[in-house]
Amino acid sequence: MKAKELQELLDFIAKSGLNKVNIETEEFKISVQRDPNTKHMTTIAAPMAHAPAPAAAPAAAPASAAATEAPAGNYKPLKAPMIGTFYRSNGPDSPAFVQVGDMVEKGQVICIIEAMKLFNEIEAEESGRIVKALVDNATPVEYDQPLFLIE
């Protein structure tokens, strides 16, 4: 890919409002990620003839997320697949999708994350029992931030 084509692609992505784009062809692999709170983007490009470059480490999660890591045990985190605002229910008068102690099945809706005025239902990636809720209702969450612990 020529420098001009790459610049045009980056300009298009910046104007589109997308936060993350991955493009892979036979010739190259490119990953573009933008922090929605800033105006700059991080770009990683690697020719496919070589081993793929390691992805840039995401920004460190807030200290509160680190402080709420799993206690000792066989717990797995159910993580946020996107950046947005976390909600435990459909509305203020609706019951929470899941409570601590509830059994969940893979594919069951466990919460909602609002991103850019869109409400996205988040489903459990595996079955198990909810051990702990790590995020308070109506709070911002980061990509890959643990939301619940499942046993």
Structure write-up:
It contains 2 helices and 11 strands, in the order H-E-E-E-H-E-E-E-E-E-E-E-E. It has helices spanning 3-16, 63-67, and strands spanning 20-24, 28-34, 41-47, 76-79, 84-87, 103-104, 109-115, 118-123, 128-133, 139-141, 146-150. A 4-stranded antiparallel sheet has the order 4-11-9-6, with no helix packed on it. The chain has a 4-stranded antiparallel sheet with strand order 8-7-5-10, with no helix packed on it. A hairpin with a 6-residue loop joins strand 2 (28-34) and strand 3.
Brief overview, please?
The chain has helices at residues 3-16, 63-67; strands spanning 20-24, 28-34, 41-47, 76-79, 84-87, 103-104, 109-115, 118-123, 128-133, 139-141, 146-150. The protein is mainly beta and 151 residues long.
Task: Tag the structure with descriptive keywords.
151 residues, mainly beta, four-stranded antiparallel sheet, 2 helices, 11 strands, 37% strand, elongated
Count, helices:
2
Rg of Cα set: 18 Å
Spatial ordering of strands, largest sheet: 4-11-9-6
Mean pLDDT reading: 76
Which spans of ≥5 residues are poorly predicted at pLDDT below 50?
A: 39-70
Class from helix and strand fractions: mainly beta
Summarize the amount of helix as a percent range: 10-25%
Principal-axes geometry comes out as elongated
Number of strands: 11
